[in-house]
């Protein structure tokens, strides 16, 4: 145990560990991820965790992961995870024990899982991110239920129509029904599939 603790402390002292630091908002423009933000579309940074090899940039639109191969390599791969396409789930926060140097937040965007070690001195700030991600996941879950209910309602209506005797031009009826179905599905997705969760970050993130 003593050997492991000494090794971990030495790695952190020498700058070889990969414990992330939460970046102050005044320094958001200095992180690599800032270069890839869609400012033209109203994207805004709310939270950044930076380690020796990676950056995790949380915006109103999702997560921008600047993935480094190692602390000494300049090679980076930029990966985007949008709230519109991927649901947040399995959010957990692990606090530090007496001898731990770091705390850990875990979460998933769709099928992509993340585990980020953060300096334990920044626990209070990390709690804010934890709460924001949990709330976003809850909202996405409720939205998915609403979309599913809306689609099921449309399906039942179409089945009822198919059993009815309709009068008029068959091709025109089919065309109108197709357009109605398309518009219904588009409207329900637009209403219940959020692209922007800036309001959630503004509620929980105390910068």
UniProtKB/TrEMBL annotation:
Domain YvbH-like oligomerisation: start-end pairs: 152-207
What InterPro entries does the database record attribute to this sequence? PHb (IPR012544), PHb_sf (IPR037063), YvbH_oligomer_dom (IPR021722)
Q: Which Pfam families match?
A: bPH_1, YvbH_ext
Where are the membrane-spanning stretches? Answer: none
Q: Where would I find the Bacterial Pleckstrin homology domain in this sequence?
A: 14-136
Check the record and name the Gene3D superfamilies matching this protein. Answer: 1.10.287.210, Bacterial Pleckstrin homology domain
Q: What is this protein called?
A: Bacterial PH domain
Q: Give the species this sequence originates from.
A: Romboutsia ilealis
């Amino acid at each position: 145990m003593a050997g492991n603790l000494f090794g971990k402390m030495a790695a952190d002292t020498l700058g070889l560990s990969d414990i992330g630091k939460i970046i102050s908002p005044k320094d958001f423009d200095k992180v690599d991820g800032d270069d890839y933000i869609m400012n033209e579309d109203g994207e805004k940074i709310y939270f950044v965790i930076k380690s020796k090899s990676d950056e995790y940039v949380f915006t109103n639109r999702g997560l921008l992961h600047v993935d480094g191969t190692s602390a000494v390599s300049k090679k980076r791969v930029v990966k985007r995870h949008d709230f519109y396409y991927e649901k947040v789930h399995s959010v957990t926060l692990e606090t530090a024990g007496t001898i731990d140097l770091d705390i850990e937040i875990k979460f998933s965007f769709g099928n992509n899982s993340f585990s980020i070690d953060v300096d334990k001195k920044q626990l209070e700030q990390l709690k804010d991110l934890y709460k924001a991600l949990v709330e976003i996941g809850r909202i996405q879950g409720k939205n998915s239920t609403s979309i599913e209910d809306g689609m099921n309602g449309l399906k039942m209506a179409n089945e009822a129509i198919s059993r009815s005797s309709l009068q008029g031009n068959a091709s025109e009826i089919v065309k109108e029904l197709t357009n109605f179905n398309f518009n219904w599905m588009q409207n329900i997705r637009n209403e219940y599939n959020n692209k922007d969760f800036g309001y959630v970050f503004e509620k929980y993130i105390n910068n």
